[in-house]
Amino acid sequence: MVRTCLFCVPCYLDLLKTYRDVPLVKILAGIRRCGKSTILEMLQEDLIKSGVLADHIISMRYTSEDFDDGMTHKEMYKGIKEKMTDGGRYYLLLDEVQEITDWEKAVNSLLKNANTDIYVTGSNSKLMSGEISTYLTGRYLSIPVFTLSFAEYMDFKKT
């Protein structure tokens, strides 16, 4: 587990930049409504600003009504691979991935067999099962995400 300075939003983004293109799955885990999805959206904007083509950023939200209940890890893998149209580097932003049973298998395969940089989010309780250590041992970085402090909230309200 990695600790950032004060767990502020800019600190999360700086940490993610530090580990960009490092062959590890970056896992943002935290309680519901703490800002994990927002951090992914900000990461996507930062990737585009740094020159990554928008069609090489695959952003999937697995709580969406667009996905069937009971989607398998194989369907997840296939759906992502279909979006990868060339041999270039792809950035995978996978939100609420714990909704997919055995998601670790799909993510591990994408990490090993495709030119990807992978970021996932999920809730603490469902995401950090024993399976993650089986399929991603040594290949992931866990980043805890916390809600805003009162001082951070006030700082946002000023703007």
Q: How would you summarize this macromolecular structure in one to three sentences?
A:
The chain is an alpha/beta fold and 159 residues long. The chain has one domain (9-145): 3-Layer(aba) Sandwich (Rossmann fold), CATH 3.40.50.
Describe it for me?
The protein is of the alpha/beta class and 159 residues long. The chain has one domain: 3-Layer(aba) Sandwich (Rossmann fold). 42% of the residues lie in helices and 19% in strands. It is built from seven helices and five strands, in the order αβαβαβαβααβα. It has helices spanning 9-18, 36-49, 73-83, 103-113, 124-127, 130-136, 150-158; strands at 25-30, 57-61, 90-95, 116-123, 140-144. A five-stranded parallel sheet has the order 2-3-4-1-5, with helices on both faces. Helix 4 links the parallel strand 3 and strand 4 (116-123). Helix 3 (73-83) packs parallel to helix 4 (103-113) and helix 4 runs parallel beside helix 6 (130-136). It is globular and about 45 Å long. The protein starts with 8 loop residues before the first helix and ends with a helix. 31% of the residues are buried. Residues 1-6 have low confidence and may be disordered.
